[in-house]
Write a structure and sequence with these properties.
With 132 residues, the chain is of the alpha+beta class. Helix content is 25%, strand content 32%. It has four helices and seven strands; from the N terminus they run βααβββαβαββ. The two termini are 21 Å apart.
Length: 132
């Protein structure tokens, strides 16, 4: 089991520009720092993996924006963070060929739709969700 923790500034340099395994954009150090300081966001790290999640608030949903690497422990950390924020569902968009899909499916995320051109022209996404 990998220890999940809330990212500190010292963790951000290793994440700067790393590929987003979901298929979306990567984030710069300054964007990650902004997310880290914003009250509705959580930046979590677990070993060499990381995740940025936005919490809409009590009764709403949480949305995963970035995954660096893929870790079942990190997904559990995202769920724990979402529960603490009072959200009832986690959603995310992933490329159909994302390397994270097996971990997401094993963690109980289910396909809830398709989004054409989500990541750019001719780059669709799968819309995934998990009720907490």
């Amino acid at each position: 089991m990998v220890k999940i923790k809330v990212a500190k500034k010292a963790d951000l340099a290793a994440l700067d520009g790393k590929p987003n395994v979901l298929g979306g954009p990567s984030f710069s150090y300054s964007a990650l720092e902004m997310f880290m300081m914003a009250p509705d966001f959580a930046v979590l790290v677990a070993g060499s993996s990381a995740l940025v999640i936005y919490h809409e608030g009590k009764g709403g949903k949480s949305r995963v924006l970035l995954m660096v690497g893929s870790s079942p422990d990190l997904l559990k950390g995202a769920e724990d963070s979402s529960r603490r924020a009072g959200t009832v569902k986690i959603t995310l968009e992933a490329a159909p060929d994302s390397l994270a899909l097996p971990d997401l499916e094993a963690a109980g995320y289910r396909k809830a739709g398709n989004v054409a051109n989500y990541f750019g022209k001719d780059r669709p996404a799968l819309f995934l969700e998990k009720n907490l």
